[in-house]
Amino acid sequence: MKVFIGLGNPGTAYDGTRHNIGFAVVDALERTFENSSGWKAGKGSYYFAKGKHRAEDILVVKPTTYMNHSGRAVRDVLQFYKAERADLCVITDDIALPLGKLRMRLQGSDGGHNGLASCILELGSDEFARLRCGVGNDFRVGEQSRYVLSQFKADEREMVTDMIARTLTTCEDIANFGFEKAVSKVKV
């Protein structure tokens, strides 16, 4: 079973913000499932949905811990479902990438992202896949927090919709062909 965990902040106040692009992706992925369980509260600080895509079992997760403590939920999910880091893909925003650009790595640093830093800390390893969604970088130094908690502008929404669609394709490639092939197919 592949596990896709979208990082974000819980609550309607954060819906549609740059920081919640991970939630938007797993919501969209869940809507593609055959026989979805629907979103349910997990055995920890997260919501989950299970389903299939072309006969492959998939689990999607949204932590309820807020971004900077996402690692706790990621750890709890892997423990409860007896899943391996090798089956995990964390989906998050990235202000270092231009809006719409995707980047996938199978391991590596947190790149200054507090949610990924929490995941690395709680898992005790940086060896897990991460799919970063570029949310742009149109902010003044020192105002990163305000920027990532802002809504996408009207003229950015088409690019965001396209990026989510490409991210879904990447998730489907991971489920069907594995991480190595998916990394090579990520298109910007």
Major β-sheet strand ordering: 2-3-4-1-5-7-6
The first-level CATH class is given as: Alpha Beta
Shape: globular
**How far apart are the first and last residues' alpha carbons, in Å?**
27 Å
The quaternary organization reads as single chain
- CATH architecture tag: 3-Layer(aba) Sandwich
**Biggest sheet: strands, sense, closure?**
7 strands, mixed
Determine the number of helices (DSSP H or I, runs of at least 4 residues).
6
- Residue stretches low in confidence (pLDDT < 50, at least 5 long) are none
How much of the polypeptide forms β-strand, as a percent range? Answer: 15-25%
Helicity, in percent? 25-40%
CATH topology: Rossmann fold
Order of helices and strands: EHEEEHEEHEHHH
Name the CATH homologous superfamily: Peptidyl-tRNA hydrolase
β-strand number: 7
- What is the mean predicted local confidence, pLDDT? 94
What is the count of structural domains? 1
Features of the shown structure:
Rossmann fold; 7-stranded mixed β-sheet; globular
Question: What would you say this structure looks like, in words?
Answer:
The chain has 188 residues and is of the alpha/beta class. It has one domain: Peptidyl-tRNA hydrolase (Rossmann fold, 3-Layer(aba) Sandwich). It is built from 6 helices and 7 strands; from the N terminus they run E-H-E-E-E-H-E-E-H-E-H-H-H. Strands 2-3-4-1-5-7-6 form a 7-stranded mixed beta sheet, sandwiched between helices. A hairpin with a 2-residue loop joins strand 3 and strand 4 (56-63). Helix 1 packs across helix 5 (157-177) and helix 5 runs antiparallel to helix 6 (179-185). It starts with a strand and ends with a helix. The mean pLDDT is 94.
